[in-house]
Amino acid sequence: MSQSPTHAQRSDVFLLDAERTTWHDETLWFVRQKRDKAVYATPEFQELRQLASDIKDHTLSQLAEYLEQFEAAALANGVRVHWAADADEHNAIVLGIVRAAGASRVVKSKSMLTEECHLNPHLLANGVEVIDSDLGERIIQLRGEAPSHVVLPAIHLKKEDVGETFWQHLGTEKGLTDPQQLTEAARQHLREKFLAAEVAISGVNFAVAETGSVVVCTNEGNADLAIGLARVHIACMGMEKLLPRLSDLAVFTRLLTRSATGQPITTYTSHFTRPAPGKEMHVVIVNNGRSQQLGRPDFRASLKCIRCGACMNTCPVYRRSGGHSYDFTIPGPIGAILSPNIDMRQHVSLPFASTLCGSCTDVCPVKIDIHTQLYKWRQVLGAEGMLPASKKYSMKLLSRVLARPGLFKAGGVAARLGLRLVPHALSHAPGYNPWAIARELPAPPKQSFREWYAHQSSVSAK
Amino acid sequence: MKVALFVPCYVDQFYPQVAIASLQLLEKLGVRAVFPAQQTCCGQPMANSGCEQDAKPVYHHFVETFQDYDYVVGPAGSCVYHVRKHFDIIDQTPAVQHVRTATVELFDFITSILGVTELPGRFPHQVGLHLSCHGQRGLHQANESEMTPVRDGQLRRLLAGLEGLTLTELDRNDECCGFGGTFCVSEAGISARMGQDRVADHLRHGTQVLTGGDMSCLMHLEGLVRRRQLPLQVRHAAEIFNQAFA
Amino acid sequence: MSTRARMLAAVRASQPAALPLPAVPLFEGEASVGKFTTVLESIGGQVVSLSHLNQLAATVALRYPSEYRVASALLRTTVAVNAATAATILESIDLAVLRGAFGVAENGSVWLPEAAMLHRALPTIAQHLVLVLDRRDLVATMHHAYGRLASQPGGYGIFLAGPSKTADIEQSLVIGAHGARSLTVLLC
Q: What are the tens digits of pLDDT across the range B190-219?
């Protein structure tokens, strides 16, 4: 059995460039601070979080009914609704719609779901040109990379990297690093693609059961521009995106961008309910493991996620390891509780890539108990026998010692004695003691507290 | 009031002076805490590693050890939080329920249970407070930057009350230090980097004595400070108050 | 069994007992021109006061070059646009002047319904955008905004807040990503 690299192993690579790690950490901390400013300025923010959480809990508890209601409303609006059990079926449906439209050029706005389903390679393999139109997505598409963040897909790159990529692919001047000029070059390049595309694919931020609408939020306007021009619009949505009522959007639009970037709202909060006359609108509803997660009471709440990325921006581990260290479509704390549902063995290290500091839970706009779920996934992975044998047996041994005071006392004496007698070079050897890569071990005292206490008691008894 | 001192395993073995200071500080406040010698650990190292089931005998042992006390006071927010939050997987007998609510962090006990909001004494140094995540976000002993810009909390107030003490204002008031239990070895690289960043924030703003209510965070930070021989003393807050309260 | 039936069955088997749907209170807020202006300017938009709608043409003429190709239902325009207008023509438009339905003071957004767009792509394909708004049509928060829509979002509609922007390169804010390079709200 080949083991994929652990989060720690991938992080070690990221950490090699200490300066870049500092930059990555500070850039995302800056986003977290923008979020804080927006949150502090909204007195009812905590009340909104609770409402959002309750609305999502309710919706998940009647998800089947809301899916049916949404479908009926969408059909009545002239929208075609498709159901996909998994990524393959989703990709086949999308390709089928593209083919039926006789199209070969597709423009796609940002969608983590299509990333999750690996739609692009499927379309490309079938002769369909698919262009990501979100600037960050386009940058990483040109580089052949995966997004490293759900809202800021190219946050792992510096402007020099983007300049290099655009020089290679878009023919910009070599050494161009000005974000304004780079963005302008992308604007010109992508305008051509928007004008030529026959099909526009979008993600879905929210879907409204009551009206059959899908809502797409962008700052760039790429989704609206593409959909407004193309003959066919395909909106791909995970089935947990539903909200019962149009008015519920008030709660969620108020929370989403304040949590994500500190903006009061995205520039474009677009409501697609009916296709334009003579055009087509399709919605593909995707399961791909979501019903399974819905059936896990301890992890169900992860489906409330609205992909704001706040847990990534606040996570001290994510900020210092980068999104690619998670090796899952959704990185960061939320990704670490979604990924084991998809493949426990492959993602076994992710729930351990956290200090359980709880900041993710506190910033989450829909109050997902992320750090508690990380803890619970660890228990599931332990019970499923996924932990490395060394850890498993050392923990069993530790348990035996800690449940028996006599053994514990003897063990403590031995450990302290050991630390005092073993030469520093050995106790701090990098291959044997990961603690010592950057830290000294505690200086072992002559006496433990219990020894001191026993001595005191015997003195005072006399 | 029958009070037991809960001394986390690593404090017992490596930082006896912290437990001694806790005991003496409580005594100065009129509380004679006893140390039940059969105590071992809260079981957190196993549970955080995904071996919660293996920790069950340890949980039972903890409850048996402390069930006859009104309060179980420990100088470690993380261990206290573990008892209060994660002992939910064993049968919730009256003894278990009692121990879960009776287990209290030292400064929470001093401020919330004893009602002491100011401790006497002088400590003429610039002190940097490291907030333990489990004390702050878990036990709500301090305000959280995720919720409010106000930087307040039990320990911060007590420290600010000491004569001659200056508190450091950090760039990041409540970022995790990166200890995280077994995380510190399973993700050693990130753990060390987080701790280094935390220490740098303190040094940048003039901290002379780095303190906190949780010795586990401090053990990690102290290890980093000693490795680089940085001009910082690391001391548990119990030591500071016990020394100041002469 | 169809995929649809299998998916719905899987969801039914997994979903917990029904939990209540909360009523959302109408959070109050300031619906003033001052608040709307401050917020919209903080996100890169501009607000200009018109004493009367009959000043519209003069104001636009003053603020934009005369050679601009303009599309609008509110002005005499250089480009006539309707739902059937070809993309190549839309692409040449420098300025669109459209009627916003109402504005939201807490976030500086303006509800732009399909009926006011001339063409669905016009608000994003035009290089610059002007939205004309009656100052009496300002609401405080998104709760009031969706209250105004009364569960009728129309075929397509946008809450549009400021010019198109991106910060995808090193978090540097750049105005004019794909949509309008500038947005001005003319309040009358």
A: 999 999 999 999 999 999 999 999 999 999
Q: Is B112 on the interface with A (CB under 8 A)?
A: no
Residues 6+ apart with CB under 8 A from A60: A240, A294, A300, A303, A304, C15, C16
A187: closest chain C residue by CA: C178
Given a contact cutoff of 8 angstroms between Cβ atoms, the answer to whether C106 and C141 are in contact is yes
Confirm if B220 and B76 have CB atoms less than 8 A apart. Answer: no
pLDDT at res. A462: 64
DSSP letter for each residue of A409-454:
HHHHHHHHHHHHHS-HHHHT-TTT-GGGGT-PPPPPPSS-HHHHHH
A286: closest chain C residue by CA: C7
Assign domain A42-288 to a CATH class. Answer: alpha beta
Q: Which residues of C touch A225 (CB under 8 A)?
A: 121, 124-125, 178-179
The residue written with tokens 């030529």 in the block is A196
CB proximity list for A245: less than 8 A, separation 6 or greater = A208, A209, A210, C151
Whether residue C114 is contained in a domain is answered as yes
**Residue B51 near chain A (CB below 8 Å):** yes
Contacts of A395 in chain B (CB under 8 A): 45-46, 49, 51, 54
Whether residue A350 contacts residue B128, with contact meaning beta carbons closer than 8 Å, is answered with no
* Number of domains, chain C: 1
Adjacency order of strands within the sheet including A268-272:
A242-243, A206-208, A213-218, A268-272, C156-160, C109-113, C102-104, C138-139
The CA-to-CA distance between both ends of chain A, in Å, stands at 65
Cross-chain Cβ contact C153/A213 below 8 Å? yes
Tell me: the pLDDT tens digits for C89-110? Answer: 999 999 999 999 999 999 999 9
Q: Residue ranges of the domains in chain A?
A: 42-288, 400-461
pLDDT of residue B51: 93
- Give the one of C13, C22, C179 whose C-beta lies nearest to A225's C-beta: C179
The letter for the amino acid at A41 is A
Distance from CA of C140 to the nearest CA of A (A): 12
- Distance of alpha carbon B145 from alpha carbon B56, whole angstroms: 34
Q: Are B166 and A408 in contact (CB under 8 A)?
A: no
| Average of per-residue pLDDT values in chain A | 94
Strand (E) or helix (H) holding C156: strand C156-160
Show the domain range for C94.
30-187
The partner residue sitting opposite B16, judged by closest CB among A314, A361, A448, is A448
Q: Is residue C13 part of a domain?
A: no
Q: How far apart, in Å, are the Cα atoms of A308 and each of A35, A113, A313, C179?
A: 11, 14, 10, 22
| CA–CA dist B146, B174 (Å, integer) | 9
Q: Nearest chain A Cα to B180, which residue?
A: A355
Give the angle C19-C22-C23 at the CA atoms, nearest 5°. 155
Which of C30, C109, C166, C181 is the best residue to mutate to test the A interface, defined by the most A CB atoms within 10 Å of its own CB?
C166
Question: What mean pLDDT is predicted for residues C133-144?
Answer: 98
